[in-house]
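Hey L., structure's done. Input below.
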Amino acid sequence: PVLYSTHARVVEDDSNGYTNTLGDPNSDGCYEIYNAAQLYAFAKMVNGGQPSISAKLMADIDLSAVCGEDSASWTPIGSDSQKFTGAFDGQGHTVSELYVSITKTDTHLYAGLFGYVASGGVVKNLAVSGVVKSEVTVGAYASGWSYTGGVAGYNEGTVETCSFSGSVSAVLRSTYLNSSYTGGVVGCNYTGSITNCYHTGTV
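Output:
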């Protein structure tokens, strides 16, 4: 498929038979996601000021059309300014070819398919595969932490029945007291819940 953006809308030229914009949520209040363009659009909505929206996957999704080592990094769903508080149900589907590569200086970093899952947020019934890597450089007396995980970088909510297959890595360069939290499924779990999850690959 050919993927490009027109203003804030993501358009995909393919013949999958499904609309490439999210449209309206269903009767349960969830957006139904069938392809990479729709998942990309969902991430933009969350990160753009709608962190409480919910979605469910209706098919397996290959993200190579929207991210990759030779193209661009995936922008994680949810951040410290837009903490994800919705519900995301993978319904047993797989998100493959995830590629996250984030480098920052003197700040906090959240890397994964999801960046920040806040209290009340739920990610469940989802398998993810790909590569997640982060790098933070922190100068003298500056503050910076990295939270890096395959499914979610930072979790205060609920992550259940999820898996990640692939590589997760993090580099922290600091001359002061700062921390890097890295995990196969979740980088840092703070007051949250992780159940029935596993990782295969390297950390």
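Helices lie at 36-47. The radius of gyration is 16 Å.

-- N.
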